[in-house]
Amino acid sequence: MRPMTVFRAVLIAATAGLLLSPSANAQDKSSPPSTTMPKTTTAPANISDKKLDAAAAAAKKVSVLNESYQGKIAKASDPDKKRLADEANAAMKTAITDQGLTVEEYKNIIEVAQNDPSVRNKLLQRLQ
Fold first, then answer.
1. Rounded Cα distance, 103 and 109, in Å
2. φ and ψ at 14, to 5 degrees?
3. Domain locations along the chain
4. Which of 2, 53, 75, 91 has the smallest CB count inside 10 Å?
5. How many CA atoms lie within 13 A of 16 on its CB side?
6. Dihedral sign, CA of 83, 84, 89, 93?
7. What are the percentages of helix, strand and coil residues in the chain, rounded to 5?
8. 3-state secondary structure of 34
9. Closest by Cα among 17, 25, 19 to 70
10. pLDDT digits (tens, 9 = 90+) for 78-113
């Protein structure tokens, strides 16, 4: 698999996993959902090697969990789908926090990597 394909797969898995949770998707019903990406609070120059190492390790675990739970959710009965999605989300959050990152830090690093080729390459190197 090409490095960019690996990165996209991990990114999709990471993002999908974090969006499974109803609490992650909860929005005020009175305002329409935003169509723009929020600005990151982490500047590319401020991401330490330690944080990149942690993000890469978390992304690998999140990817495996996402793949595993997608299959389970697809085969599950409707009543079990929400329970499995909640279980998957909790496991993914744990995979991130076990690496010493908050979910917000992790999402910011992934977002920065999407937009900054230098950070993306550093993360890709760690994912291989």
1. 10
2. -65, -45
3. 3-20+46-127
4. 2
5. 17
6. positive
7. 75, 0, 25
8. coil
9. 17
10. 889 999 999 999 999 999 999 999 999 999 999 999
